Each structure stands twice: as C-alpha cells, then as structure tokens.
Amino acid sequence: MSSHRYAVFGHPVAHSLSPRIHAAFAQQAGIALEYTAIDAAPHDFVAALDRFADDGGAGANVTLPLKEAAFAICAQTTDRARRAGAVNTLTRNDGQWHGDNTDGAGLVRDLTGRHGLDLRARRALLLGAGGAARGVAPALLDAGISELIIVNRTAERADALADALGEPDRAHSRYWRDLGDLGDFSLIVNATSASRQDQGAFTLPFHLATPRTLAVDLNYGEAAIPFLAWARAAGCHDAVDGLGMLVEQAAEAFEHWHGVRPDTDPVYAALRDRDKVLVTAD
Ligand code: ATR
Questions:
Q1: 2 pLDDT above the threshold of 60
Q2: Quick one: pLDDT band at residue 3, thresholds 50, 70, 90?
Q3: Nearest CA to ligand 1 atom 14
Q4: Catalytic annotation on 276?
Q5: Which residues form the Quinate/shikimate 5-dehydrogenase/glutamyl-tRNA reductase domain (predicted)?
Q6: pLDDT exceeding 70 applies to what percent of the chain?
Q7: Which CATH superfamily is domain 105-243 in?
C-alpha cells in the first residue's frame, strides 16, 4: 500500500471528475499518485476519514454535502476556510486534519484568468448559502465586487453567511420572495444545488440581468443547464459554468500537497471537450 493516498469524499461522489483531474496533474508532474473517490454519507463521514487516515491518507478533497462537516473536524484551518465556514481541502499533519478552502480562489482564477473577466465594482447576487456559496463568497469580496446580496431558500442560512462574512456595508441577505425587488446585478452566481435535486430548478425574474451581466453557475455538466439557459434567455453578456473553477480549485490543492503548480489549460480543455457544454464567456 502506498503511504501517500489522496481521495475526494462526497455523497454521491461516483461521477466526480476530481480523480481524473488529479491524475492528469500527477502525470504532468511525473508524480505517482493514488487518488480515489470515496462515498461517505454525512453520518459516516468522520469514521470514513479516520479509516482513510489509518490507511495512509495524506490529503483529501471534500465535496457536497460534506464541506461544512469537514470544517468542523479540523484541528487547524486557514483564514479563508474560517471565513467560509467550509473546507474543501484536507491535509494530514501530525495526526490531525488541517483544512483549507480553495473554491473561492479557484473561481476567481477561472473568471479573471481563463475568461479575462473583471469582477471589480460588480454588484453581485449570490443564490444559495450552503457549502458552495460559503466557499466562494469571501473570494468574491476580495476580488473587489461592490456589493454582495445573498438570497437563499432558507433565509436563516443567508443571514448566517452574511454575518460570518463580517462586512455589513457590502454583504447582506435578502428574502428569496423579494428577488423581484432587488434591482439588477452585473454578477449573478448560482450556488444552489436545485438542479441536482428531484424537484428541479427554480425560476428567476429576467430583470435581474442586464446586457453586461456575468452569470456563473458553480455546477457543471447537466446540472448547469437550467441556470445558464435562463442567463442566456435573460440576455446576460457571459454565462460560465463551474468546470473551470473545479479544475482551478484542484490545482490549488495539488500545489499545496505536492509543491508543483499544474498547467490547468490542457486539463480544462480535455474535460470541456468531453463535456461539450456551456461556456459563452468572451
Ligand atoms: P452545496 O455544498 O452544493 O452548497 P448544500 O450545502 O447542501 O450543498 O447547499 C445547497 C444549497 O442549494 C442551499 O443553499 C439550498 O437551500 P437551503 O439552504 O434552503 O436548503 C439550495 N437549494 C437546494 N435546492 C433548492 C431549490 N429547489 N430551490 C432553491 N434553493 C435550493
């Protein structure tokens, strides 16, 4: 057995692209890597992580719905993980888990680097307040957006996220039912899992968008179709799915674990080619 094992934990996790992304990075870097997908239901997550650590687990990515649970089990966390209250990258150090959150940095790198978009001074609407929303909110503020309005089906979670961000002048929550009264936005981020669930997607008023709006879905593949279809119908200037963010957050984790910065472009291009969906950013 290798003494350095890596994995992604999620529920479900079978369709995760992370093993493929990390394998491609490892091949680039000439590193032999074991990186698997481990399905762990929330109630079994801590036990599964313990087993993984006992078996030589050195690092793990965490995806839905386990990012807030991962934060809770860490002995130490980075500042950006604490601001998010969610962890997507775990590293084993001295018999304890250290937690980081690379989602926000991954998103901003994808939007500003790959897609050449400027986030500064944008008035932003964040739909959702779960682990994914928590991961990206601090990085969006750091990227210079002028305002962040958080709207969530369950209002208390939006309130809690706004409080945790600690920037009452820029970041605040509003009720979902008031979406029609919030004016328009130059950045709209879908961080909900609505399209991954049985009850399907929600509808949004078209007047949230303008011809210069950037619409971003943190989902990718089929789960990004409903929101990005809405964005196009609403006349948004750019509509970007979460595939690039996925690759960039993986690169952040890979660099942290292995000390090598991967070249993300060929990996992104291969996955995009396979996926054949959904980016219309200039
Ligand atoms: P993730 O890690 O993907 O963020 P999560 O923490 O379970 O997963 O959060 C899912 C998010 O999608 C939440 O903001 C959730 O809203 P609630 O807090 O009200 O549950 C949101 N969501 C899920 N289904 C939704 C739906 N049908 N309509 C609107 N929001 C939905």
A1: no
A2: low
A3: 128
A4: no
A5: 118-194
A6: 95
A7: NAD(P)-binding Rossmann-like Domain (3.40.50.720)
Give the nearest ligand 1 atom to 132 CA.
Answer: 4
CA dist., res. 224 & res. 190, Å (int): 9
The answer to pTM > 0.90 is yes
DSSP assignment of 151-186 equals: EESSHHHHHHHHHHHT-TTTEEEEEGGGGGGS---S
Distance 192 CA to ligand 1 centre (A): 4
Of the candidates 11, 22, 67, 114, the residue annotated as catalytic is 67
Distance 160 CA to ligand 1 centre (A): 14
**Binding pocket residue ranges, ligand 1, CB within 6 Å:** 64-65, 67, 128-133, 152-154, 157, 191-194, 197, 199, 202
